[in-house]
Amino acid sequence: MRPIRLGAVEYLNARPLVRGLDRQPDRFDLRFDLPARCAALLHEGRIDVGLIPTIELLGRDYRLVPGVGVVSRGQVASVALFSTKPVGAIRSIAIDRSSRTSVALLKILCVQRFGIDPAVVPLPPDLPAMIGRCDAALIIGDVALFADHEAAGARKIDLGEEWTEMTGLPFVYACWAGRPSALQESDVAALQAARDRGVRELDAVAREHSGDDEARIAAASQYLRANVQYDVGAAELAGLRRFLETASELGIAPGPATVDFYQQPGPRGAGL
Prior knowledge:
Elements: E1 4-9, E2 28-33, H1 35-43, E3 49-53, E4 63-64, E5 68-72, E6 79-83, E7 92-95, H2 100-114, E8 119-122, H3 127-133, E9 136-140, H4 141-146, E10 155-158, H5 159-167, E11 171-178, H6 185-200, H7 202-210, H8 214-226, E12 229-231, H9 234-249
Helix pairs in contact: 2-5, 7-8
């Protein structure tokens, strides 16, 4: 049998979820892309399982690896709106379209928390250029994490923090998803074990991803410890379902908000 074609996100916050998977070539054929590209490859059948933005679950018959995801419970630091104006005065937002989940989260917050209806302008993730064109900019991933917004004259509004303050729930940004027959129980166990290994080795993950810049390494390590988590339990599932249902109700993305799981290894049975 051929290895499972696995598509992962290239950002720092996804690296703990793939720890050691590159050392299992008989089981996984691993590649890295931007979040939107991971989703497109999965939809096209060019990978078997992808670490995809959660908005991509709407209208799809995918299964999730139970218990695993990229999560925030408050400030996330790497999904942010950078604004040169007070939130209520924002009339235009430049958006980084690398992840449709972040765009959908922003649209929900604009309607339900900020009370604004801004025009959106897709632009490459370059903060000075974006806020030169628009009142604010949505940027995600490593660019958002390390952006010097004060030097650019912008305020950083953390979208993970805004979601949790509005709902009282965590936010799930990405999860392992694939077609129902893509993974066996042993494959699910391998992905869960990679997550556990990555969480144990966060400092090593930060160092390997950050080159020789000690300040950047320290910031990356702090981010992995303080801002992102990788366990998806009952509260996280409630947050995920709330997000998908709201996105569907607002017409942000089509399809029913269904969440199904691969068989959970061991005696616990299926799903969560």
